[in-house]
Amino acid sequence: MKGIPNMGNIMKQAQQFQTKLAKMQEELGDKTVQASAGGGMITVTANGRQEIIAIKIEPEVVNASDVDMLQDLVLAAVNDALAKAKAMMNDEMATLTKGLGLPNIPGLF
Q1: In angstroms, rounded to a whole number, what is the distance separating the alpha carbons of residues 98 and 107?
Q2: Which of 36, 41, 43, 48 could join 56 via S-S bond, C-beta 3.0 to 4.6 A?
Q3: What span, in angstroms and rounded, lies between the C-alpha atoms of 37 and 51?
Q4: In the CATH scheme, what is the homologous superfamily, with its name and number, of domain 29-95?
Q5: Would the pTM count as exceeding 0.85?
Q6: Residue ranges, the chain, pLDDT below 50
C-alpha cells in the first residue's frame, strides 16, 4: 500500500530514539547549571535531571534576626537553578527530536 510507512522501519527508528534518549538523560546528569541570588550571596547548582546538587551560602548573609530574607534568597536561587536545568533539558530534547517530524507541543519536554 502506498503511503503507509514500513512498520519495521518505524520500530527501528523508535528503538534508536529510545537509545539516544537514554544516553541523553545519562549525560544530562553530568551537566550542571548555576544560579545565584542576593548578588552572589547564595549560589545553587542543579544538574540536568533537575536535581539540586549544591547550595553555597556566604556567611555574611546569615543573620539570625532576618531569617526571612535568607529563605527568600535561597528560594529564588533554587527556582532559578531549576528553571535553567529545565531549559537545558528542553534544548537537549529539541536537538534529539529534530528531524523526527514531531509537532511542537509546548511543555511536552
Answers
A1: 16
A2: 43
A3: 18
A4: Nucleoid-associated protein YbaB-like domain (3.30.1310.10)
A5: no
A6: none
